[in-house]
Each structure stands twice: as structure tokens, then as C-alpha cells.
Write a structure and sequence with these properties.
Number of helices: 9
Strand content: 15-25%
Shape: globular
Radius of gyration: 21 Å
Distance between the termini: 52 Å
Largest sheet: 3 strands, antiparallel
Oligomer: single chain
Number of strands: 7
Order of helices and strands: HHHEEHHHHHHEEEEE
């Protein structure tokens, strides 16, 4: 790429989309190598090290180390993460933006706020009982957010998204699982399965049952304290 600096600035300020930028950094290390080369000394990385403490809640502490952008990006990964999810896009944009703003204070860069707004919007419209690694991997929630009719007002956009999510996950009224742990809604062929019922196992846990309306395939998800 001829002018990496200009391209990265365009990404920070919103003239290059997060998905296009991520596609570029997935092609080669050229972009991230350049960003690493301009990291100012005040930006540090950190590593977690075990510590001995009388407090059982304190098992590790973070110590500063020289910044490495590849190590920083690895921290964005989690089970089921996708490199084009809204959460990943926001993390990449935030990390690159803070480096560029610190490295080029004279340019008075104005980071784009849309990645954060879209991620916050998704958190607002998605019910707490919907989620999990299979849902994350499918990208179905991001598809809902990006397909909202642009002419709608903010209130109408929220209503449209909430209704669409419930429709896709076959939720009617309050008929949905109440999870003990974090939700792990099952998917089949990229589509959400329909919740059927829950069987409780005393005070220790429960099993949620789901089925696929199209094929009749059934699945169960264990949910324990």
C-alpha cells in the first residue's frame, strides 16, 4: 500500500469502514507493522503474572511491558469470536485510534464514533437471554443491526430490531429460557433453534430443550450453578 498513514487515518476518522480495514490487515502484516513502528513510548502493554496474596480474589496482577500490537489484538479474541463482529470491529478501531491520536497530536484526529454507537445499540436491543458462542459465530445479530431501514427514527429502529430478533429466535411473549449462567442459545445451519421447555434439577441446575422448526432436530443445553 502506497500511503499507509493516510489509510489508517481514514479508518480512524470513519472514511474507511472497519470491515474493509480488518480485511486489509488480514491480507498481510504491513499495516500493523507500520502502526507498531509509530507507537509512542507513553503507550504500554501489560502482562498478567501470578501473585501471592492473603486475599483469594487477588491471584494475578498486570505489569507494564513494551507495547506489541499483535499481543494487544490477541486479547480481543474469545470463544466464538469472529473477526468481523461488531465487538471486534470496535476493539480494533478503539486500539488503532488511541495509538494514532497519541502518535500524531498535531493532526487533531477525530475518531469515528459509529463503531461504538452500533455496538451499544446492539447491547440495547438484544435481550439478555439471547447470546452464546454459536450466536456470536453466526453473525445473525450484526445482520439485524445492519439491515434496519435507514429512514426510521432511533425509537423506531430500536423497536424494529427488538421485534426482528425475537422473530428470528422464535420468542413469543415470555416463553424463553431463564439462564443460570451466561446464555448459550443453540443454532442449526446458521439459524436459531426454538426454545421448548426447561427441566430443573433441584437447586443445582437445569436443562433447556430446543428444537428446529424446519427439521424437527432437537438439542438440549445444560445450565448449572
Amino acid at each position: 500500500m502506497e500511503n499507509i498513514e493516510e489509510y489508517v487515518i481514514d479508518f480512524v476518522e470513519g472514511r474507511v469502514s472497519p470491515s474493509d480495514f480488518i480485511a486489509e490487515i488480514n491480507k498481510s502484516n504491513e499495516m500493523l507493522d507500520w502502526v507498531q513502528s509509530i507507537v509512542p513510548p507513553q503507550i504500554k502493554g501489560s502482562i498478567a503474572v501470578p501473585v501471592e496474596s492473603d486475599d483469594p480474589r487477588i491471584r494475578i496482577k498486570n505489569i507494564p511491558v513494551p507495547y506489541n500490537i499483535y499481543d494487544a489484538f490477541k486479547k480481543f479474541e474469545y470463544p466464538g469470536f469472529r473477526k468481523n463482529s461488531l465487538g471486534y470491529q470496535l476493539n480494533v478501531h478503539s486500539e488503532i485510534s488511541r495509538i494514532m491520536v497519541a502518535a500524531f497530536p498535531e493532526k487533531r484526529l477525530m475518531p469515528d464514533t459509529r463503531p461504538e454507537k452500533m455496538f451499544v445499540f446492539l447491547l440495547e436491543v438484544c435481550p439478555s437471554y439471547i447470546g452464546g458462542s454459536e450466536v456470536d459465530e453466526s453473525g445473525i445479530l450484526e445482520e439485524v443491526v445492519t439491515s434496519i431501514p435507514k429512514e426510521l427514527s432511533k425509537t423506531a429502529r430500536q423497536k424494529w430490531a427488538k421485534e426482528r430478533i425475537k422473530e428470528l429466535f422464535h420468542v413469543e411473549g415470555r416463553h424463553h429460557p431463564y439462564w443460570i449462567q451466561e446464555p448459550e442459545w443453540p443454532m442449526l445451519n446458521g439459524e436459531p433453534m426454538a426454545y421448548v421447555r426447561t427441566v430443573k434439577h433441584g437447586m443445582e441446575g437445569q436443562t433447556h430443550y430446543f428444537h428446529d422448526p424446519q427439521t424437527g432436530v432437537e438439542r438440549s443445553v445444560e445450565d448449572w450453578h
